[in-house]
Description:
By secondary structure, chain A is an all-alpha fold. Chain A has helices at residues 12-31, 37-56, 63-81, 91-117, 126-145, 148-166, 170-196. Chain B has 5 helices and 3 strands; from the N terminus they run H-H-E-H-H-E-E-H. Chain B has a single domain, classed as Winged helix-like DNA-binding domain superfamily/Winged helix DNA-binding domain (Arc Repressor Mutant, subunit A, Orthogonal Bundle), CATH 1.10.10.10. Chain B has a 3-stranded antiparallel beta sheet.
Amino acid sequence: MTNIEQHDGTTRDDLVQRVALMEAMIAEGRQSTARYGWMFVLWGLTYFAAIGWTVYLPYTEWAWPVCIAACTVVFGIVRSRQPRVAGKIDNLRRHSLDAVWQVIGGGIVVYLLAVIVSGQAKEPGYLAAVLFFNGLANGVSARILRWWPQAVAAAIWWGCGTAMLFFTTRTEELALFVTATFCGMIVFGLYAMWLERGAAALELHHA
Amino acid sequence: MPELPELDPVVHGKLRLAVLSLLVSVEEADFTWLRDKTGSTDGNLGAQMLKLEEAGYVAMQKRFAGRKPQTLYRMTPAGRRALAKYVAALKRLLGGAL
């Protein structure tokens, strides 16, 4: 390693080398980082699509199964095209997070299918459980990551879920569901994507 | 003629700059991963990480992953600011090259 303690003797080539080094290392780091923000946005849009279908389109019993299946396919395609994790960055924690979201996500799918098959999708309040499931996943994730913005997302899910048990008209229920999805998933996902840009904020790109 | 900006000597060292550039795009990273990515040796990397810690640019945490000890590093807000300032200084020194 060459340590240059003052830049008086530093040549232009040295500086250009530093830039190349930074770009190479940032690219390495990015390859090693799984990105999660887009997943929240994708699932948020799926929730919107499903709830929109139940309100505006016929065959409402197909809304959730079709939207979830479509989202799962898109999710799988996008994730398979993401670079594999190259580094050993806190694998235990990543494994814990994957486990939480896979198990709770699976729980939401099973619950929604059970609601539809049993014909209870027209009963008020069934969506409250979906909000609580999401709050649970976000809450556990926030605890693992010690990340307060995700704890706020969990609080939004739980708050809207709780309110849904008191405000039971269809309109109120939909408004709460849309609010929770927008704030707890879309906005939170966009915020996570913005954070994931990380190095981009340093404006290292060539002109 | 405008005065040329100072380059932070702590950031400017090649290995330290490489480490900071790696850490800026990850949440945290363990020592062996940083060593492998930079192609450094344990001793050299350890010494440079200590300098970064003393400058307050990285924070270190030791823990166990199962039975295996792990040394994790993350960039501090001060480190992020220092790197951003370094990039801005580089931009000025290199003119339109960046």
